DNA sequence: CCGTCACTTGACCAAGCGGTCAACAAATTT
DNA sequence: AAATTTGTTGACCGCTTGGTCAAGTGACGG
């Protein structure tokens, strides 16, 4: 097993090149939005001729869809931290940590997603209506169980989830504003830790769990 | 006094027309972003020929700047609720209420602002560095005073402010996602009230004030 | 009634856009 | 080593864009 056939090598190289383009596209889409981004600029950032980009991704829309679906997948994974927990302290705490880490490591993906939703999800409404709705219902049920078990205050799980999403993603989407208010400097390691701690503390104490 | 000269009438008509264009522009910029919006579409929504729009606003950038500065002004006004307060319960509570009302009544303005900041504030960096920085420093000082007076827990005021901004604006910027998760329906009056109550409760309880 | 000035608008333009294509180079298969 | 497939690229095309402009319209002051 695990023999590298020539086909494998080719596929690997293909995927590698696709990754280069996807990373470039993520940056450009995040910086300019779908409408403002140009295939020429994406190609320049990727270091390729425009026609070559079109060889791997037929249309701008194809490329954009992949970028959006990437960040979406990363966020879904962060839910595992949520599911494995026995109570709100670990579950919600770990989920906030995970989402904050993503905001730190993938700010561009977060921005692209925010842009897409803000404009009415013109390309990914199907994701919202299927995957996101199912995922959300599962998580809402978990929170509701915690409420029913008396592990936390009676809080509408929907709005709690919105608060967590809003706050964690804010650190990616509004990174520029945060930096400007921080004297033009990006948050340092310590400040980032303090952000996580503060947010967790306010939310956990806010829903009435012992920290 | 208060005599309506012909000049006044003309100016009034001019401002009226500018308002029509600004409203149309706000909608189009919110829906498509700066790069995706077209002057032609803005003109169509306003019900005017494109050349006429250019008569009132020379460039797309001029028009965009005004839209951004409008929502910015509205948000600054919401701060009064903050300032007149004697403690965190009234101050922060009233500020959250005010910002939630704006998210409800001016979702498009909020989206335009979010878009602008997300893309690195390419047109309004000066606003961020002057007005916003000053405003924020004033508010941070107020919160710090409350902390020092023992009226609330020791919480980093910066992150508290970010949480409030993030959450309240989320209800405007991610309105589409919230509606989708609400069965495709916009939040009703009762749901909106519940959102406000839940958010205020979590945050106020989270920073340790008696509600 | 006439002249002035703010406003209106269809036609137009250069520039940039997403996307195509034919010619070529490199790698794999036979 | 010939044949075939896969990847690369500069030049190109039709179309849309932001913005201009000259010719007009209408309202007001003298």
Topology of helices and strands:
The structure is a homodimer of 211-residue chains.
Chain A: H1 6-36, H2 39-46, H3 50-56, H4 60-77, H5 79-83, H6 88-105, H7 107-118, H8 125-148, H9 157-173, H10 175-181, H11 189-206
Helix pairs in contact in A: 1-2, 1-4, 1-7, 2-3, 4-7, 6-9, 6-11, 7-9
Chain A binds a DNA duplex (30 and 30 nucleotides) through helix 1 and helix 3.
DNA-binding region (chains A, B): 38-57
Organism (chains A, B): Candidatus Rhodobacter oscarellae
GO biological process, one term (chains A, B): negative regulation of DNA-templated transcription
Q: How many discrete structural domains of chain A? A: 2
Poorly predicted spans of chain A: 1-6
* Net shape of chain A: globular
Q: Most extensive interface, residues per chain?
A: A-B, 55 and 55 residues
CATH top level class name of the largest domain in chain A: Mainly Alpha
- Oligomerization status of the protein chains: homodimer
Taking all residues together, what is the mean pLDDT of chain A? 93
CATH architecture of the largest domain in chain A: Orthogonal Bundle
Reported for the largest beta sheet of chain A, the result is: none
CATH topology of the largest domain in chain A, which one? Tetracycline Repressor, domain 2
Structural class of chain A: mainly alpha
* Rg on CA atoms of chain A, Å: 20 Å
CATH level-4 homologous superfamily of the largest domain in chain A: Tetracycline Repressor, domain 2
Number of helices of chain A: 11
- How many beta-strand runs of chain A? 0
How far apart the termini of chain A lie comes to 50 Å
Q: How large is the share of residues in beta strands of chain A? A: under 5%
Instruction: Note the run of SSEs of chain A as H and E.
Output: HHHHHHHHHHH
Percent range of helical residues of chain A: over 70%
GO molecular function (chains A, B): DNA-binding transcription factor activity; transcription cis-regulatory region binding
InterPro entries (chains A, B): Homeodomain-like_sf, HTH-type_TetR-like_transc_reg, HTH_TetR, Tet_transcr_reg_TetR-rel_C_sf, Tscrpt_reg_YcdC_C
Organism (chains A, B): Candidatus Rhodobacter oscarellae
Protein name (chains A, B): Transcriptional regulator RutR of pyrimidine catabolism (TetR family)
